[in-house]
Each structure stands twice: as structure tokens, then as C-alpha cells.
Amino acid sequence: MLLNLVLECQVKAPNSFDKFVDMKYNNSKEYEVLKTRYKATKSYTFYKKYLNKRMPKTIDDLMSIMKNSNQYDTFKREYNTIKEIKRSKWNNKFKRKAIKTYDDFRKKGIETSSHGVARIVQRIQDKKITLDEIIDTYNKPINYTECDKKNNTIKNIRYYNKFRVVTNEEDTEIISVVKNSKDISKDKERDGTWKKK
User: Is the pLDDT of residue 59 over 90?
Assistant: First the structure.
């Protein structure tokens, strides 16, 4: 019944949902349930455009994710990464590799941004790094931070054996991977770019 009401609202008053519900229902509890369901339906449609098979099976499953802020934050990051990959100007072969690499990392409990996954794919293709190096370094403690003045954020750095994995400020996503030919940590500390953690 509730889903029918939501669909009825979308058809009869897609731009004036509040007015429609206020006219038809005065019970605020019922109104809140209907409004939540309506928002979830819109969100489901919105996210499905890029996530397709990655979507929760039902709107109720999505609503359950939306109620848990950590799960929902993870879900939104996944949406943004997949959307950025699919909308990028990369060729289709590279996009497929990027999504496969993203999925490989997710299976290991590691998230990557679209920029991070692009760097990973490029550097693995160029045989500059291996998947195991990235995972091993990621699993070590953060030992430096870097202030990104352009974006006014802090980047977390795991730098070991001339190899670094850079994550975002919240340490939720890999945003870059770099292998240096020599140890640059002392130079970065000296010039103030990196701070030891």
C-alpha cells in the first residue's frame, strides 16, 4: 500500500510532494513514513543509473543502508567512484580494468577513489608496482601526513621502501600510489611537505 501511495505521489504531484501529502494525510507519523519511502524511491532511481547490479535488491534494503551512516557513506563513495569512472574520457578497455581493479580492492576491504584506481591500473600495467605491494603498504600504519593546500585537506601517507600509498583525510579511500627511485622521506620532512606521524 505504501509503495502505491509513493507512486501515486510521483504521478499526481512530482514537484509538490509535501502539498499532496499534507492535503491527503494529517497524521504526521504516517506522513514521515511516506516521505521517507518517497525519498528512498527517488534515491534508488538516482543511484541505479550508475550502480546497476551493485544496487541493493529492494528499496527497503536501500532504506536500511541509509539509516546506517557508515554504510551509507561507503555506499555513496562507491557510487561516486563508479560514476566518475563511467563518465571519464578513458577508453572502454581502461574503464573495465578500472572497475575490475576497484572491485578487487573492495573484496579485500579497501576502497579507492577514481583517481586512485586510475593510478593503480596505470602503474600495474607499467609494471612499476604490484597489487601485493599496494595491499602490504596499505595495511601498514600511516607514518606521514601531507597538507594539500589546494583542496585544504590532509592526506595520509604510508611510505615504506620508497613506495607510498596515499589516502584521503578520513583514511577511507586510496587516492594515489607512487613508487620512487630513491627515498624521499627526509627531503619531504625537511621542506615541510610531510609531517611525521
Answer: no
